[in-house]
Design goal:
- The chain has 135 residues and is mainly α.
- The chain folds into two domains: 43 residues, no CATH class; 59 residues, no CATH class.
- It is 64% helix and 0% strand.
- It is built from seven helices and no strands.
- The two termini are 37 Å apart.
């Protein structure tokens, strides 16, 4: 009988996923992080009290100015993009392009019309940006 020895995902993937989870969803999260870093949040709570409206403001700003936050990559997707980036690959077979388009459509929750031009300028560029953002 095989004994389970814990999480078998790579350390690099675990670190990437941890950073990805901490990414801001929108402007409200970014404003909150800035205010926390310069301690403005504590001053406002001291003056206005615990219910200063900060949480409601954060939610409203996140709704109004949502960042293009992709879903998390699976380890297999992460490894595929990593391989292409590490090898500086710039030519892809139709099957490879279809795999990248499938990843793109899943993580960005959108359909994309893929042409040879749009693959490199949109799909692959955005996937590499997602990959690089969390390294």
């Amino acid at each position: 009988m095989t004994e389970f020895k814990g999480d078998k995902r790579t350390k690099e993937y675990k670190e990437w996923k941890k950073k990805h989870a901490a990414a801001s969803e929108g402007l409200g999260d970014t404003v909150q992080k800035v205010f926390q870093s310069v301690k403005i949040d504590k001053a406002v709570k001291f003056i206005a009290g615990e219910d200063c409206g900060c949480d409601e403001r954060k939610v409203k700003l996140n709704e109004m100015f949502r960042y293009k936050k992709p879903e998390c990559l699976t380890e297999q997707e992460f490894d595929l993009i990593k391989m292409a980036v590490d090898t500086k690959k710039n030519k892809f077979t139709p099957d490879e392009q279809n795999a990248f388009v499938s990843i793109y459509e899943r993580i960005f929750k959108t359909k994309v019309e893929c042409t040879p031009c749009s693959f490199g300028k949109v799909v692959y560029k955005d996937l590499v940006a997602v990959y690089n953002q969390y390294l």
